[in-house]
TrEMBL record:
It holds the Pfam family ABC_tran. GO terms for molecular function: ATP binding; ATP hydrolysis activity. InterPro entries: AAA+_ATPase, ABC_transporter-like_ATP-bd, ABC_transporter-like_CS, P-loop_NTPase. This is Phospholipid/cholesterol/gamma-HCH transport system ATP-binding protein. It comes from Rhodovulum steppense. The lineage of its organism: Bacteria, Pseudomonadati, Pseudomonadota, Alphaproteobacteria, Rhodobacterales. Keywords: ATP-binding, Nucleotide-binding, Transport. Coiled coil: none annotated. Residues 7-244 form the ABC transporter domain.
Length: 257
């Protein structure tokens, strides 16, 4: 079966004044894969994610998502594509004045023509899918631990039953046990829901545990894509120090690789 490209980025350029972050960057994301996006701090991983999900307008280039040219599309078409995706930000980006259940239900208000009671039941389903206890739905974000906040952010990203999930540093700030539990959760959700996942991370354990392919951002573009094993053979100093450094070896040893 021919693999389907669900995100196609071509000729992407992003600059902030004199700071050129991306220049003629290209990337494909295939349906059903978990793609890890790595790169040094400041290489433009978050800017790439924000460009794809429409939170910022790139300086130049073309982005096709789920068959729609998102930069050229009408606001209504962009919103329709956006409703088929979910984004989880590093800090969860939850509304502090809303309970977890209300946070998870918030995207449904606009997009789903269902009453408040149904929205609450659907939100509770998402809350249980991410492994939070039922009582977490009544809590406000301030009452959650870091790990619970990540899960609540994930539940909200799953609110509209998305095809593509964007995760920005999902395990940052978590202790190793919680991070590993998050990896396991991501793997099981991805299987159960048939998700495509665009995962920005620095976490080698997460890459090893969850990703089918990795894309390395360097020198303003996607320098290389491939499996973790392929990364170890790439002749580039940053790629070598990242994928063949002591931390990478530790991650591989744990994974039995
Ligand atoms: N709104 C903005 N205005 C000006 N410069 C910006 C803006 N957003 C990002 N940048 C710049 O773009 C570059 C890439 O930032 P980005 O946050 O995408 O990096 P990153 O690879 O995600 O880094 P990290 O791993 O540290 O999170 C940085 O030089 C940053 O200062």
């Amino acid at each position: 079966m021919q693999a389907e490209t669900v995100i196609e980025v071509r000729g992407l350029t992003n600059r902030f004044g004199a700071n050129v972050v991306h220049e003629d960057l290209s990337l494909d994301v295939m349906r059903g894969e978990v793609l890890g996006v790595v790169g040094a701090s400041g290489s433009g991983k978050s800017v790439l994610l924000r460009s794809i999900v429409g939170l910022m307008t790139p300086s130049a280039g073309q982005i096709t998502m789920l068959g729609t040219d998102v930069l050229g599309a009408s606001a209504a078409d962009r919103a329709a594509v956006s409703a088929r995706t979910g984004v989880m930000f590093q800090d969860g980006a939850l509304f502090s004045a809303l309970t977890v259940r209300e946070n998870v239900a918030a995207p449904m208000r606009e997009r789903l023509g269902v009453d408040a009671e149904t929205r609450a039941s659907l939100a509770d389903l998402r809350i249980s899918m991410v492994g939070l206890p039922p009582e977490a739905g009544d809590l406000f974000p301030a009452a959650l631990s870091g790990g619970m906040r990540k899960r609540a952010g994930l539940a909200r990203a799953l609110s509209l039953d998305p095809e593509i999930l964007f995760l920005d540093e999902p395990t940052a700030g978590l202790d190793p046990i919680s991070a590993s539990a998050f990896d396991t959760l991501l793997n099981s959700l991805r299987k159960a829901l048939g998700l495509t996942v665009f995962l920005v991370t620095h976490d080698l354990d997460t890459l090893q545990a969850t990703c089918d392919r990795v894309a390395v951002l360097a020198r303003r573009r996607v320098l290389v894509t491939g499996t973790m094993a392929q990364m170890r053979a790439v002749d580039d100093p940053w790629v070598q120090s990242y994928f063949n450094g002591p931390r990478a070896h530790a991650a591989l040893a744990v994974a039995g690789g």
